[in-house]
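subagent[fold] <- orchestrator: predict structure for attached chain, return tokens only, no commentary.
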Amino acid sequence: MEKQLFTVKETNLISAHQAVRKVANFLMGVVILLGAVAMAAPYVWLLISSLKTVEDFTLHPYRLLPRPVSFEAYLRALTLGRISIYLGNSVLYASATTLAQLFLDSLAAFAFARLTFRGKNLLFSLLLATIILPGAVTLVPTYLIIVKIGLADTRLGVMLPGFAGAFGIFMLRQFFLNIPTDIEDAARIDGCTRFGVYWRIILPLARPALVTLGLFIFIGAWSDFLWPLVVLTDWDLYPITVGLASFRNEAWIYWNSVFAGSVIASFPLIALTCLAQRYLIGGIALSGLKG
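subagent[fold] -> orchestrator:
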């Protein structure tokens, strides 16, 4: 009889625990949904506003459906706002910066993870210390160096400071430490050089980390506003961030066109994030397994 009562109480306790768990999961789902709506709402309003005419946006800026649907804002942004020129510059800056930084960061990370040399730990500590420095601290010295070497107001001057980054070196080093050294030893026995090990073995195995870091670098380079604004004076060299700001100051009455330019500027980032999503999660997880 006591065993039966105990079994009934245990069953009731399990049922109550499952009910509480279901309620908690439901509430968590509601919170996540509300957070997603809060984050997506500004972009949805941006997209809807870009499809309105100037009159419709002026009279009904917060109406959910444009009446009528118009693409004149996109045409004005591409012609009057020269968004196509700025977009091409941003593609060049972000792509070149991403490729250069992935190559140089991976080389440095491979050295810190696999090579043994005097002062390695001290050098790596100094490198990590630079991560905490805000960009405003190094803005003026970087600008003076770029001016001194004659790269001010040039495309290379915009890209050069982003060709290497301490965060990328740290992240890739953490990933490289998780790769077994037995693979490298077998390759060296077969006659592979040190650079061959890096190029033929380490980089293919580190694809998730490289894609993740590349996405971070591309987004950072694409979204950079202050450095191009400081180093450039030629409007034809402006990236999309600075170009949109100048277009807003010129055509402040055409807010729907400014919104259309913002939609065009955000599309490459959204597309890249969707394409790299499966690598993104794995790269973040694997790069932090070992210290």
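orchestrator: received. Logging for downstream: The chain is about 75% helix and 0% strand. Residues 287-291 have pLDDT under 50 and may be disordered.
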